[in-house]
């Protein structure tokens, strides 16, 4: 027996479109192996929200967006409505939130997630903004209404950092957690190590589509810090905000410094660190010199990685090579399926 799941998909950028691509590729397997049939009844992009109760076709919708189409051009468009306003009255089973990160007020994602959780509807996020600004509120709301809340896609894409921390480190005290959480910065540093200047490496990242036109979140360390805040609130047992993290980006790192460290068997990486001391955890994001032979020292280019030291489980090391948004979209699918199948 399969269950039809009415989905609201907020955000049709790279991750949202790749989620639709997964539905094209894996619909049969999701139905036969997991008993889930996803029907996308609501979609939203920066132009607005549209509703189609019998479902938007994933392939047609993805191709429409890839060709430059906008939701406001579609039948079912809801003029002047925000995602949260539409979701307040919509009959649906699952919210997928993949709109752009907004660290000013979290919108439109934060209101959409609140709307879903208040009604007991599960929410799965790839968008870090609502979590950085209101993770404790959202977790408490999900607990109160019994709604599932998944967000493993927000930290290192498909690498299941959040799932490992919440599920697999039962009763552990984590003394050290550090990682490379931003592949754009890691790519730039790798390019600089070959002799390119920072400006040349950034331009190459932008040419390849790795870095945004405005790469501030990546190169200034904010994206990495966002992920550290989500980790800390999720399984380090503390409540922190972005202001609690010391942040330094990679803009001051020079090619000469990198090549000097390489000659000595070292490298420079943008590291997120949570170090437990007598006064609690110290959270830091900054370029750090580490031995090239270390696990994170070998985390290059497109890779992201994390190491976790704990009293019960020893030292754990995880790495991911992720060049495209498909694995991040798959992480949303993973969370959605886990929530839906656990709820049965």
Structural summary, described in words:
- The protein is α/β, with parallel strands linked by helices.
- The protein has two domains: 3-158 and 326-342, Rossmann fold; 170-321, Dihydrodipicolinate Reductase, domain 2.
- It is 40% helix and 23% strand.
- The chain is built from twelve helices and twelve strands.
- The chain has helices at residues 14-34, 58-66, 83-89, 109-118, 129-145, 161-167, 183-193, 198-207, 216-219, 222-235, 255-263, 326-342, and strands spanning 3-10, 36-45, 48-51, 94-97, 123-125, 149-150, 174-180, 246-247, 266-277, 280-291, 303-310, 314-321.
- The strands form two sheets. A six-stranded mixed β-sheet has the order 3-2-1-4-5-6, with helices on both faces. Strands 8-10-9-7-11-12 form a six-stranded mixed β-sheet.
- Strand 1, helix 1 and strand 2 (36-45) form a beta-alpha-beta unit.
- The longest helix has 21 residues, at 14-34.
Structure described in brief:
The protein is α/β, with parallel strands linked by helices and 344 residues long. 40% of the residues lie in helices and 23% in strands.
């Amino acid at each position: 027996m399969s269950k039809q799941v009415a989905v609201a998909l907020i955000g049709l950028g790279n991750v949202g479109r790749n989620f639709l691509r997964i539905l094209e590729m894996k619909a049969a397997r999701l139905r036969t192996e997991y008993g889930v049939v996803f029907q996308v009844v609501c979609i939203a992009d920066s132009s607005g929200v549209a509703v189609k109760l019998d479902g938007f076709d994933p392939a047609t919708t993805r191709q429409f967006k890839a060709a430059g189409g906008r939701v406001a051009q579609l039948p079912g468009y809801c003029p002047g409505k925000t995602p949260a306003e539409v979701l307040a009255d919509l009959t649906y089973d699952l919210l997928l939130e993949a709109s752009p990160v907004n660290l000013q007020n979290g919108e439109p994602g934060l209101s959409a997630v609140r709307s879903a959780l208040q009604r007991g509807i599960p929410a799965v996020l790839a968008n870090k903004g609502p979590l950085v600004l209101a993770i404790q509120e959202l977790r408490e709301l999900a607990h109160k209404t019994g709604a599932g809340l998944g967000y493993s896609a927000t930290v290192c894409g498909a690498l299941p950092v959040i799932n490992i921390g919440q599920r697999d480190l039962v009763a552990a005290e984590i003394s050290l957690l550090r990682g490379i959480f931003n592949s754009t910065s890691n790519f730039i540093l790798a390019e600089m190590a070959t002799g390119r200047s920072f400006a040349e490496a950034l331009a190459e990242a932008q040419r390849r589509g790795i870095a945004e036109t405005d790469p501030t979140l990546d190169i200034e360390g904010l994206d990495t810090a966002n992920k550290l805040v989500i980790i800390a609130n999720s399984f380090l047992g503390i409540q922190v905000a972005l202001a609690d993290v010391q942040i330094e980006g990679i803009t001051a790192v020079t090619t000469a410094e990198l090549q000097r460290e390489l000659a000595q068997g070292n490298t420079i990486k943008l590291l997120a660190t949570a170090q437990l001391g007598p006064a609690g955890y110290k959270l830091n994001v900054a370029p750090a010199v580490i031995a090239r032979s270390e696990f994170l020292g070998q985390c290059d280019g497109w890779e992201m990685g994390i190491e976790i030291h704990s009293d019960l489980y020893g030292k754990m090391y995880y790495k991911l090579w992720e060049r495209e948004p498909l694995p991040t979209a798959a992480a949303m699918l993973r969370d959605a399926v886990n929530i839906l199948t656990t709820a049965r």
